[in-house]
Amino acid sequence: MKDKITLKRSIYIGIMRVLMWVSAGITAALLLFMLGYVMMKGVPNITWKLLSEKPSYLTHQIGILPDILNTLYIVAATLVIVIPLGVGAAIYLTEYAQNKRLVGAIEYAAETLSGIPSIIYGLVGMLFFCSFLNMKTSLFAGALTLVIMNLPTVMRTTQESLKTVPQSYREGAFGLGAGKWRVIRTVVLPGCVDGVITGCILSVGRILGESAALLFTAGFAHALNGFFTGLQSAGATLTVALYVYAKEQGEFEVAFAIAAILMILTFIVNIAAALVSRYFKKRRSI
Q1: How far apart are CA 31 and CA 52, in angstroms?
Q2: Running DSSP on this structure, what letter comes out for residue 245?
Q3: What distance in Å separates the CA atoms of residue 91 and residue 252, rounded to the nearest whole number?
Q4: What is the spatial distance between Cα 216 and Cα 121, in angstroms, rounded to a whole number?
Q5: What is the mean pLDDT of residues 111-134?
Q6: 71 contacts 139 by C-beta, under 8 angstroms
Q7: Residue 132 has what DSSP assignment?
Q8: How far apart are the first and last CA of the chain?
Q9: Backbone angles phi, psi at 61, to 5 degrees
Q10: String of DSSP letters for 104-165
Q11: Rounded distance between C-alpha atoms, residue 171 and residue 168, angstroms
């Protein structure tokens, strides 16, 4: 009887192990196929002329310099707003809030917001920021929409990082006579800064990859503007430009080039998040 049970258990474990390896292999193969296909189609079309010039409809010249700058503008504007809001909300919920029901309600709302499709954010952003607040279609309206989208990510990531700091650190600082804010600033935040920065860097990846919300709020103009002028004007980011070149103009070579650039940027963002997290963990362990 025991031998039969042992045999069945061994067969079950063997089958589950094979299924696990098959699932991992299929996932890795799909990822490698997509990366290889996009890079093979896109990298040969990346030229200095494409990266350094703006498009001209008179000479039929194609360039993505305005789209690159618009992407940098919207990333900078979004981070400047979302990081203080997200980190501040996480600090309040973790360190100051006493009403557990309020904390639970806010956390539930944040989780709900993170699951809403981005196209709905774009619709709400268009109606509220562009129409109601009279911002019109602009990069700043798109940045505010992305702030709402990324706020739950930054807040929840910071919350989880704050919870990893041992309570004994706080009690020790309080025992030495430090105030609440001083404990948070000098003990708690340095102890979890790796998680906070990692969450902020990963939110950059989501900003880079967003297109649906920006189609409604930021527009798809290819104008070359300065930072403040660009935020007040309509402009296409790289993801929106990819859609426009592929769907509206049929320039698939340019679309694949932009896709390759976006994949490279995403890869750099993920590596940066891993390196920053590793650096602060080593620094904390010293």
Answers
A1: 30
A2: I
A3: 46
A4: 9
A5: 89
A6: no
A7: I
A8: 55
A9: -90, 140
A10: HHHHHHHHHHHTS-HHHHHHHHIIIIIIIS---S-HHHHHHHHHHHHHHHHHHHHHHHHHTS
A11: 5
CA distance 187 to 165: 9
User: Minimal CA–CA distance to 242: which of 44, 67, 78?
Assistant: 67
DSSP, residue by residue, 174-188: HHTT--HHHHIIIII
**Which of the two residues, 272 and 246, has the higher pLDDT score?**
246
Residue type at position 89: A
Sign of CA dihedral 199, 205, 209, 211: positive
Please answer whether residues 254 and 64 qualify as being in contact, where contact means their C-beta atoms are separated by less than 8 angstroms. Answer: yes
Q: What would the two tokens of residue 203 be? A: 């939110």
What value does the mean pLDDT take over residues 100-128? 87
Amino acid of residue 16? M
In the predicted model, is pLDDT for residue 45 greater than 90? Answer: no
- Three-class secondary structure of residue 58 per DSSP: coil
Residue type at position 172: G
102-116 exposure pattern, b = at least 16 Cβ within 10 A, e = fewer: eeeebeeebeebeee
Instruction: Centre a 10 Å sphere on the Cβ of residue 28 and count the other Cβ atoms it contains.
Output: 10
Alpha-carbon distance of 264 to 271, in angstroms, equals 11
Among 73, 49, 81, 67, CA closest to 226: 73
Residue 46 half-sphere exposure toward CB, CA atoms < 13 A: 14
Band (14; pLDDT cuts 50, 70, 90): confident
- The two tokens of residue 83 are 């990081």
